[in-house]
Amino acid sequence: MAYSGATFGSTQGHIQVSPEIQKWFATLDRDHSGRITATELKSALANGQGSTFSDTACKLMIGMFDKEKKGTIDIQEFQALFNYVNAWLGVFRGFDHDNSGSIQESELSAALTQMGYRFSPEFIKFLIQKSDFNQHQSISIDQFIVLCVQIQRFTEAFRQRDAQQSGTISIAFEDFLSVALNCSV
Amino acid sequence: MAYSGATFGSTQGHIQVSPEIQKWFATLDRDHSGRITATELKSALANGQGSTFSDTACKLMIGMFDKEKKGTIDIQEFQALFNYVNAWLGVFRGFDHDNSGSIQESELSAALTQMGYRFSPEFIKFLIQKSDFNQHQSISIDQFIVLCVQIQRFTEAFRQRDAQQSGTISIAFEDFLSVALNCSV
């Protein structure tokens, strides 16, 4: 098989909220609604490149942790999201050998290989080009998260339709479009 | 067939640059490099909802008109992009019957039907939910462009693989992933 792909972190279950997170959440939740939006989240997440996380990354993550699908998260979900970002940060730092805050082609390749994917060098180049909005030939932590989550989602959708694990699926137009739009961020 | 889908506008050929565009481009091109980035483009495009076009929309459009794939566009490409946005704006306004600057479910459904698609009401709901970052149950012009371009791209990719026009394709994992990541924005 050419695909495998590891996932980690959980969006389920009860999570203990730390005092640090309580303080942080209160600062972000300006209208005291008990929930924060992607825009409020954005102001909380630095990408290590002198910028906040992208709109895309914030929207993606709110969507992952927002159980009620309202486009907002409560404090429990915020703690889960925080843990999730930290776990990704650990992976990212493990491959960012020069500690530059961004990872290059060879580092991305190593990261995806460790996750169980086998991609050609051309495909890795394509992934960088696709993610790298600022043309730096490298990707930041938020771009890395978006990319990995996208690959995981498409892999999962493919796998569900590949019962025989043959590496090829048969798919109808509406299903194709749903998967494509649903998994993309 | 369940899919058809119209496209319009051209990203090819020589385009006459108007004096208005020349002036506008000069304002945006702050470093006088003769090319503008997605970030510079963003400051030029209002979405009629008191906001600029999203990062996603700007990145998508730069990608469509940037012939050299440098992530920037020159003045000719800017004029082409401007014409393209205006054409979409014409479509959008045609369906925004209450002139609210955003279109709702029924209006989106009518727009996509006119483009040759036949989608179920559930699918239209899903499209709004997918695009509507601010939970207004409606989509703005930039979200509309992103959505239509995405649908068009996935439809085109599907069609290329559906030689018999049977409405079902057989697709391998790497090809699937390339299509999914390449067409998504």
Automatic annotation (TrEMBL), chains A, B:
InterPro entries: EF-hand-dom_pair, EF_Hand_1_Ca_BS, EF_hand_dom, Peflin/Sorcin_CaBP
Pfam families in alphabetical order: EF-hand_7
PANTHER family in the cross-refs: GH27120P, PEFLIN
EF-hand domain mapped to chain residues: 16-51, 53-88, 91-118
This protein's GO CC annotations: cytoplasm
Name of the protein this chain belongs to: Peflin isoform X2
Keyword rRNA-binding found: no
SUPFAM superfamilies, alphabetized: EF-hand
GO molecular function, one term: calcium-dependent protein binding
Keywords, alphabetical: Calcium, Cytoplasm, Metal-binding, Repeat
Organism: Neodiprion lecontei (Redheaded pine sawfly)
Cross-referenced CDD domains: EFh_PEF_peflin
Compartments in which it is found: Cytoplasm
UniProt gene name: LOC107218381
